[in-house]
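By convention, the token line describes the chain's fold. To illustrate:
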Amino acid sequence: MLFSYFRKKNSQHNQQRDDIVEGQVCYVFQSVSPEKPGYIICETDEGVRFSEAVADVEINEGTAVIVISCQKSACKIKPLVSRVKPKQMM
């Protein structure tokens, strides 16, 4: 129910989606995966914005992400920290 409230609220600001810019750090509000878009939350000069987001990898809620590009329909995001396993010492 809370999510539908924010979706309706954000639809009023679709024209202002340009407030979210490339290189901006945001947080995942609803998990994102390659098969299913999710939502991110970003702080802008106009206040907090929610945007639909897509990614090449699965990203869980609360993860810091960086916006790669943002179109009218959705933003393309990547995790701020890569999930690389450190090399083991021999």
Observations:
- Residues 53 and 75 are 5 Å apart (CA to CA).
- The mean pLDDT is 81.
